[in-house]
Amino acid sequence: MHLSPKNRSQYMKRDKNLEADVLQWIFGCLGEPVPKGEFEDILRDGVVLCKLANKLAPGSVKKIQERGTNFQLMENIQRFQAAAKAYGLPQEEIFQTADLFERRNVAQVALSLFALGRITQKHPEWNGPTLGPKMADKNERQFTEEQLRSSEGLLNLQMGYNKGASQSGHGGFGNTRHM
Fold it and tell me: Is Repeat tagged as a keyword (predicted)?
């Protein structure tokens, strides 16, 4: 199903509180006050995002285009995306360039940046602000051989035992079952 930008906004609801939290976190990391304006307008040229990437992982964005053509500004966003992926943000959580630059899916941009703020918790070298709930640590369990074998004699419904019911009399694939 193809959604026009107008209809798409019905499916991806923007969360102004989340956007405010994300901006607060970004500028907290940068040590700057949050500028006035709309979420997407503040981040649209990618300059702030590139500065954030360099704050999280120094030197991760080599060139920041402060002003220029739309293409050059979109490159800032792409550099940020590459840095975020290298920092540990999963590819499926990274927003598309057009989501921000063309304001196609600003809600996804906010979710992606929120996820990046959460990932900072996995970096012990980062001592700046983080975002979101504390991430869980690995929870490995050790089972003895006896514990692993304890269920071997049991039959359950997943193993095909269903209290005597069968498909006999059904007549094969595609036929109706006579009751």
Answer: yes
